[in-house]
Amino acid sequence: MLATLIMFKPEQTPDWERLRNLFPQRVPIYAAVPGLRLKTWLIDEQQGEFGAFYVWEDQQALDDFLASELFRSLPVIFGAPPVVRIFETPAMMEKGLAELATRTG
Q1: Rounded CA gap, 56 and 64, in Å?
Q2: How far apart are CA 93 and CA 105, in angstroms?
Q3: Cys staple from 37: which of 50, 55, 97, 104, with CB 3.0 to 4.6 Å?
Q4: Fold of 2-88
């Protein structure tokens, strides 16, 4: 398994509420990506950045994603180039299969 951290830091301050509403809408898109085991969307308002943490079955699944139209569309959607970091994942623990965190208040 491999993990990636893909972050965006646009020059303009992001519309955080728009992102909070957009990310859950994109769940079905990523659920269909072959070899993607897990994706967690991330927002760091203090640093002015956002992105996601991904866990992949193997290198081929990651390579296919990085070559995909979906990945190439991200800078257009989010207004900044992605910063991609790749990690070896020797172990992973996941409780539950389909949890969607919701904000309260």
Answers
A1: 11
A2: 29
A3: 55
A4: Alpha-Beta Plaits (3.30.70)
